[in-house]
């Protein structure tokens, strides 16, 4: 199972803390139901990633203190993010849910964002139905906070000449990026870039792989990396750019991966994860080597994130594995067999947040 589109890493600019917190203990993943009484002390600036058919969330101050927080309506295949002021937004293409108290209570309103992301400087973008882009510079507490900046004669499909079925939206290295594939001859992988907060988009034509499905994008060390798969096969693919997306070169992946679902950068390496328990790492995006998932895990990894000195990869069957260097991995106990579809790490305290169908698991011990 692949992760849904647009899982948002917190450190979208590839600027990561390299110092782990004292005394990492990452075995203590659990799912509980005790009430959270001091959540404001927990979340200073970040919370991410609600996935699946989200009716509620589980948030935690400690491994022994958890709460399920209900939204005011069900959310399917949601995209979520936090801004720089502890405000949360989750959207699913029909409705958006907004929280001003760290995810404890939610207000819902109708709006068609399929993917949302924040640039950590005051701008929200929403990707709508493979065509339009909306922008909010104030807290998006209602539909009125959004304005369409790319629509109609200026929609994405009009600007590039065909529909982009995009899977990831991030703000990286001073620009907004959308990746996916195009509904045109050969269904090529598509990398789109905007430098004016979503009003105009240019396809980076240096990337032009036919029958490609791009699933994720990351940036670090002056290099952009995209990952996904070629539908013929299928075969996992990676490509890299050293000139901020103008020209792209295919990376040399190791072995025979079928599909990469996510990529992130940290500790001097890119790590890509995917189907069949696949983990690969690269210092430059050009040459990749296989790492071995712990405990013989061979199902699908759906997401990977790096922050606070640690990678966390999550996958089907409740899988959680961590690594300090992207090479050596250790399985952690997640206390669930549900598919974990997303993960994010709070750089303020190292807490990991893993999204599953309907809920979120959180560990303070990462």
Give the tally of β-strands: 29
Number of domains: 1
What structural class do the secondary elements suggest? mainly beta
Percentage beta strand: 35-45%
Number of helices: 2
Question: Whole-Å distance between the termini?
Answer: 25 Å
Give a quick set of tags describing it:
366 residues, mainly beta, Methylamine Dehydrogenase, Chain H, four-stranded antiparallel β-sheet, 29 strands, globular, disordered N terminus, disordered C terminus
How does this structure look, described?
The longest helix is centred in the middle third of the chain and has 5 residues, at 156-160. The protein is an all-beta fold. The protein is globular and about 50 Å long. The protein has helices at 39-42, 156-160, and strands at 54-62, 65-75, 79-82, 88-91, 95-99, 107-110, 115-118, 124-128, 132-136, 147-150, 164-172, 175-182, 189-194, 202-203, 212-220, 223-230, 235-241, 249-250, 260-266, 269-274, 279-282, 289-291, 301-307, 310-315, 319-323, 330-332, 340-345, 352-356, 359-363. A four-stranded antiparallel β-sheet has the order 3-4-5-6, with no helix packed on it. A hairpin with a 7-residue loop joins strand 17 and strand 18. It has two helices and 29 strands. Helices cover 2% and strands 45% of the residues. It has a single domain (39-363), classed as 7 Propeller (Methylamine Dehydrogenase, Chain H), CATH 2.130.10.10.
